[in-house]
Amino acid sequence: MSNGRYGRFGALIGVACVSSTHCRFLIYSTKNAEVLAYHELKLRQIVHQAGWMEYDPSEIWKNTQECIETAYKNLVILEINPRDIIAIGIVNQRGTSVLWNLETGQPLHNAIGWSDCRSTPILKTLLHNVRHNVDYVRYRSGLPLSSCFSALKIRWLMDHVPAVATAIEENKCLFGTLDSWLLWNLTGGVEMGVHSTDLTNAHYTSLMNVSTEQWDPKLCQFFRVPLNILPRIRSNSEIFGYVLEGPLHGTPIAAMMGEQPASLLGQLCVKAGQNVCTLDDSCFVLLNTGREKLDSANGLITGIAHKLGEKEATNYTLEGAISNAGSTVTWLRDKLQINTEINSNDNVVESLNTFIGENSMISSSCSSSMLNAECGLAAKRSEITFVPAFHGLYAPYWRHDARGIILGLTSQTTSENIAQAAYEATGFQIFEVLQAFKRDTPNWDRSCMQPVLTFGGDYAENSHLVQFIADIIGYMLERPQTTSPAGLGVMITAGVTMKVVSLEHAVKMYTPPTDVFSPTTTKNRRELLYKRWDYAVKKCLHWNNYETYEADIELFAQRELDPNLPVRRSVPGSIFLTTSFAMILLANYLKINPLK
Q1: Residue 554 CA from chain centroid, whole number
Q2: Which positions of the chain have pLDDT values less than 70?
Q3: Architecture of domain 273-354+384-480+513-555
Q4: Domain boundaries, the chain
Q5: Surface-to-core class of residue 249, CB atoms within 10 Å of its CB (0-12 exposed, 13-18 middle, 19+ buried)
Q6: How far apart are CA 76 and CA 437, in angstroms?
């Protein structure tokens, strides 16, 4: 759709990406979605104590500037005209929250990461006040009450950081997620910085009314967050401002979007009924519901897919957020010193390849030198179930008080069995979200919801793992060979703003080759293993329930004294009394009239 005034790659669009682990800047060709140049820097994660996650906002801004400058230079080295860059976009991990001083431009505290759970005590107080109704604000915000959304992070900063309370009192405080922070700095900062955000990021604060698409005064009152510190909410596709300094001086900022909705668009899941899973340290599963806004009754988030223009219609999603996926593997590797690298550990590969049971054939990936007792033991599927609820469970349970649990340990349990159980846990959590999708769409035509899941993310690059997930959930997995789906989604959005790309053009021209993984397990086998997972989840939800402790101890004592207690307890009392009385009558009758 670009005209002849651009070079051989057509109009170019740059995308600044800030994930939970990296800062990137990618420069795309709108002609075929090729990444022509890019640069990335790793983000430093600051962990003061368990469950806390912070980032240095100044470092994020500095890294973004360096990524832009280096990618720009790389483009020049490739002899591609940088003047063909017509716009840039911003994509970021939603929920990560920053407060900064309007007059100095300095952060008032480190940015609090989306998965940070320091605000759990505030959450407990709110839940107590609303009689533990986790869905108390869902009809307004589309979200359950949880510490992963920005509202409680703001509340914590107001209560615990004096500089924040002072700045708010003096009307010098601004709030934003990382998109707002980058936009404000790119457009001039203290001098003339634009303080705005987009729908997808505003929604994840739990302060936006999902129906009006504006900040909700009653939600702000409920969380006790002042309205005047919040940025202006805009659509995903419009001119937010212009870059004021650096090599891209004067370039319009034409798109902003949260990482997961951007991945949905970048994977070209633009039709209702299509879904996508992004598997990184955490995991997000999104179902495109088109223009139908569905209120979930099964623990899902009613989210925003995109709004491609101020006057355009909004597209919605149902979303399942899983807090611990790849981070579980990291925990096993770093804290327990377990080798979880699938490619370098044949025993883990064997363990994954034998998901269907003990009698499975030994996979060809196990070399002949490894066909020994050790390999056989690792390949034999263990009975371990691992629920990685380190700081609670998100979708579909939303239980901040749940804790991780490992069941089924024996003297024969190996490190490979534990690693396998960690990978299984991710698959089972994805399966739970997919089942919740079905329950929330009972009236949908199932022909438009094929058992196909588009898969992406850092961990999706490992084919063994992707096949393993397919076997657990029973879905066909499609893995498009797309570099940074979230970046592509924002490139498309910026292209729509600049009128050089349309959704129809993107679906036609940007569809990449796709790897397909089909499940190899039976439905009965999957259901059997899921029942054990469900049992383990119930255990971890009630791990600290001491209310029945004394009753349980008494029951155990009774069982020791009376071996038949379980049998008698399994018979309803009325039947027991009736049959006992009948047996007495029969015994008396036979005593008087013995059988001849």
Answers
A1: 43
A2: 1-4, 342-382, 448, 545-574, 576, 591, 594-596
A3: 2-Layer Sandwich (3.30)
A4: 1-48+57-92+235-265+485-512, 94-178+188-233, 273-354+384-480+513-555
A5: exposed
A6: 47
Give this prediction's pTM.
0.86
What are the pLDDT digits (tens) for 382-426?
A: 689 999 999 899 999 999 999 999 999 999 888 888 999 999 999
Which of 558-567 are b and which e, b meaning 16 or more Cβ less than 10 Å from the residue's Cβ?
A: eeeeeeeeee
Provide the pLDDT for residue 357.
47
Residues 10-53 pLDDT 10s: 999 999 999 999 999 999 999 999 999 999 999 999 998 989 99
Tell me how far apart the alpha carbons of residues 216 and 44 are, in angstroms, rounded to a whole number. 34
Q: Are 286 and 262 in contact (CB under 8 A)?
A: no
Kindly state the tokens that stand for 169.
């009192």
Q: Is 101 helix (H, G, I), strand (E, B) or coil?
A: strand
- Report the topology of domain 1-48+57-92+235-265+485-512: Nucleotidyltransferase; domain 5 (3.30.420)
Q: Which CATH number fits domain 94-178+188-233: 3.40.50.10140, 3.10.50.40, 3.10.120.10, 3.30.420.40?
A: 3.30.420.40
Q: Where are the alpha helices (DSSP H) in 355-462?
A: 373-379, 415-440
How far apart are alpha carbons 432 and 448 in whole angstroms? 20
pLDDT value for 448: 67
